[in-house]
Amino acid sequence: MKRKIGFILFALASGLLSASVAHADSFSFAVNGVGFTGSGVLTGTSLGGGLTNVTGGTFTINGVAATIVADPTPGQMANTASWDGYQFDYDDIVNGKGSSPLDSYGLLFDVNGALINLWEVNGVYYWNEVSNGQWNSPPSEPNGGLPIDGAIAPTPEPSSLLLLGTGLLLMAGLVFWKSAQTVAIPSRSRAA
Fold first, then answer.
1. Least enclosed by CB within 10 Å: which of 6, 42, 60, 139?
2. Which distant-in-sequence residues (6+ apart) come within 8 Å of 189 by Cβ?
3. Residue 61 sits in the same domain as residue 148
C-alpha cells in the first residue's frame, strides 16, 4: 500500500516539476516617452511558437483606461481606416520568446475614441495617435512615429507549482525509503 501511495506521489510530483514555469498568455508592459505613458497587463490566447494574440487586459495610457482593438483576423496583419493617406497596420501579437516582444505592426489601443498604435522596429518602441482624424505626429517621419522607452515581458506563473512539486517529490522519496527498509528481528533461542 505504501508503495502505491509513493508511486502516485512520485508521478504527481514529476508532472508538476515538468510543467512549464511560465505561460505566455499574460504580459506586463510599461512604456514612457514624449507625450506618452502606458502600463498594464496584456492578456490573450496562444498562437503557438511563443506568440500570443492579445485580446484584452487592463491598462492605462496617458492616465486613461484603454482597450485593445481586436484584430479581426487573429495572427494576421489588419489595418485601420486611412487618414491623410496613412493608416495603422496592427496584428496585436506579442512574442514571449526572444528579445523583441512586438513586431513592426504591434498593438492598437482605443483611448476614448482616439486610436494609439504601439510597435517595435529593431529593438526600439514607437507610437503614434489619431484623434478626430488628426495625427499626433506626421506618419511620414522615419519609422512612422515617435520613439519611446518600453518593456514588455511575459508574466511568470507563480513559483508555488515548483515548490509543491518539490515537496511531493520529497514525500514520495520518503515513502519509498521507508518501505525499502526491512526490520530484522533477531531470533531468540533458549539454551536448554
1. 60
2. none
3. yes
